[in-house]
């Protein structure tokens, strides 16, 4: 077919036919390109296909040219673009490889078909949505009908709607209960037949419009009827008042009984007044006994604090009640050793005070010259477990100090950590050791730690009543505030440190009484 004009043949087809090289440059394109770009083939030859067709600066994201270069099968792609007149155009692109360096792109305009499919799809969705709405409305109407039926049947009173010919339009289940007949049987008859009559009732609002209320006797029941007129209908509200009449009789009887009981209450009140006087006297005796227990407990605390060269001490104790469960002690041993303890017995009052006294006696009797704090707590725990059979327990922090060297070892039985002020670093450290509280579990091991006092260092021992003191907003005093005060007043004497801290606690609690005992014991190594 030498001399045949293939360009004219390609111009006659409806698709855009384009030949590009491996660099996306247009080598040939038919005249159908003008429908999209308003440009002739000669104007675009040598230019990039993606720039001419889609006004892009780089190849299309879904371009299959890379697949064709690898001799792979290229899928058709869809291009959604705008022509030179501003109309939307949708093309289906097909790609084929012709030789090693050239590729044919054929673009078929499927705009009309695509728009028609989209339109039909949209209409189908609208029809489906309208159908769903209609179904929803139908379900809503059915739901309302069921709801109204349930409402009418749930009304505690009987309800009946009567037409002007005495036929029953609506009747709820309650009326069936009143008259002892099935609702279907009642609906088939006339309204007056509900009450056992063969003709209209004498007091009927369909006969006399002035009648709005009436009474019917059915099955030994007294039924009170209330009538309301709506157009051609009469709505009867029926209530069983049989019980109300019985209640009125019962109320009269109870009123008589009440008078008799009031007379009895007057006599009982006189007896209670006498009993109250006895209780007041008994309370005075208990208060006096508690006061004496408190005095005995206070006498068990050290009368004076140790006087050790190079050290200063301070202590404070206040019970939440007249007798408490906190205590502190200073135990002098041989060879310059001292034992310092702060403990807290669970609970308050006399039981806590008794356990506190027992614990103090055990500490002083059995741990003398035991210079290992952990070993001492082990001994105390075993003795308490063998001798206390209540649910009470004791928390304790025990510190053993060599007053000659400043070396200390310590152990904790579930107590609050010791607050150690390190003068050299100007920080407060929480010092503690693992160990369960005393008097509950035997065979308990207590961890032991150690530190050495340096000039200006402070060991601050206390019970949880201090950090857990609350203000009127139920906020606790807390560790942060306490630690700040220790750092702030570290240069003061121990008694003054305690004084300033307790003043701050009282200011914080705003007059709210302490709910737990508070005990503080301070050891400070004097600065040289």
Automatic annotation (TrEMBL):
Keywords: Coiled coil, Hydrolase. InterPro entries: Bact_Sigma-Reg, PAS, PAS-like_dom_sf, PPM-type-like_dom_sf, PPM-type_phosphatase-like_dom. Residues 308-525 form the PPM-type phosphatase domain. Gene3D superfamilies: PAS domain, PPM-type phosphatase domain. Transmembrane segments: none annotated. Residues 117-144, 248-292 form a coiled coil. The lineage of its organism: Bacteria, Pseudomonadati, Deferribacterota, Deferribacteres, Deferribacterales. Pfam families: PAS_9, SpoIIE. GO terms for molecular function: phosphatase activity. This is PP2C family protein-serine/threonine phosphatase.
């Amino acid at each position: 077919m030498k001399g045949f004009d293939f360009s004219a043949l390609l111009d006659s087809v409806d698709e855009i036919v384009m030949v590009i090289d491996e660099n996306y440059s247009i080598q040939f394109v038919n005249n159908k390109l003008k429908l999209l770009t308003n440009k002739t083939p000669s104007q675009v030859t040598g230019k990039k296909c993606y720039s001419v067709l889609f006004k892009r600066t780089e190849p299309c994201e879904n371009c299959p040219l890379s697949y064709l270069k690898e001799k792979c099968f290229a899928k058709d792609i869809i291009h959604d673009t705008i022509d030179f007149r501003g109309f939307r155009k949708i093309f289906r692109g097909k790609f084929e490889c012709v030789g090693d360096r050239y590729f044919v792109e054929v673009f078929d305009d499927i705009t009309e078909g695509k728009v028609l499919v989209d339109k039909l799809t949209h209409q189908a969705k609208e029809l489906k949505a309208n159908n769903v709405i209609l179904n929803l409305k139908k379900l809503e109407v059915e739901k309302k009908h069921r709801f109204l039926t349930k409402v009418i049947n749930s009304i505690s009173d009987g309800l009946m709607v009567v037409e002007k010919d005495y036929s029953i339009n609506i009747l709820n289940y309650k009326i069936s209960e009143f008259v002892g007949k099935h609702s279907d049987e009642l609906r088939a008859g006339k309204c007056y037949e509900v009450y056992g009559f063969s003709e209209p009732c004498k007091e009927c609002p369909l006969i006399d419009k002035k009648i709005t209320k009436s009474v019917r006797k059915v099955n030994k029941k007294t039924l009170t009827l209330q009538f309301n007129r709506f157009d051609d209908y009469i709505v009867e509200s029926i209530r069983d008042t049989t019980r109300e009449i019985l209640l009125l009789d019962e109320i009269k009887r109870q009123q008589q009984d009440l008078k008799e009981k009031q007379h009895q209450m007057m006599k009982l009140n006189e007896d209670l007044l006498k009993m109250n006087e006895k209780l007041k006297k008994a309370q005075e005796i208990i208060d006096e006994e508690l006061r004496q227990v408190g005095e005995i407990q206070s006498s068990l605390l050290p009368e004076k604090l140790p006087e050790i060269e190079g050290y200063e001490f301070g202590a404070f104790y206040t019970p939440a009640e007249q007798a408490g469960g906190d205590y502190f002690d200073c135990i002098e041993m041989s060879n310059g050793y001292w034992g310092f303890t702060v403990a807290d017995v669970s609970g308050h009052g006399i039981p806590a005070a008794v356990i506190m006294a027992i614990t103090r006696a055990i500490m002083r009797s059995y741990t003398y010259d035991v210079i290992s704090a952990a070993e001492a707590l082990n001994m105390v725990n075993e003795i308490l477990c063998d001798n206390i059979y209540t649910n009470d327990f004791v928390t304790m922090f025990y510190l053993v100090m060599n007053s000659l060297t400043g070396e200390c070892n310590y152990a904790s039985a579930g107590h609050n950590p010791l607050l150690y002020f390190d003068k050299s670093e100007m920080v407060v450290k929480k010092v503690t050791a693992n160990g369960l509280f005393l008097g509950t579990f035997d065979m308990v091991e207590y961890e032991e730690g150690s530190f050495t006092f340096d000039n200006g260092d402070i060991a601050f021992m206390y019970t949880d009543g201090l950090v857990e003191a609350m203000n009127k907003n139920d906020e606790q005093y807390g560790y942060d505030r306490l630690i700040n005060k220790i750092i702030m007043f570290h240069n003061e004497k121990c008694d003054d440190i305690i004084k300033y801290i307790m003043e701050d606690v009282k200011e914080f609690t705003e007059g709210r009484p302490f709910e737990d005992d508070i005990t503080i014991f301070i050891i400070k190594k004097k600065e040289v």
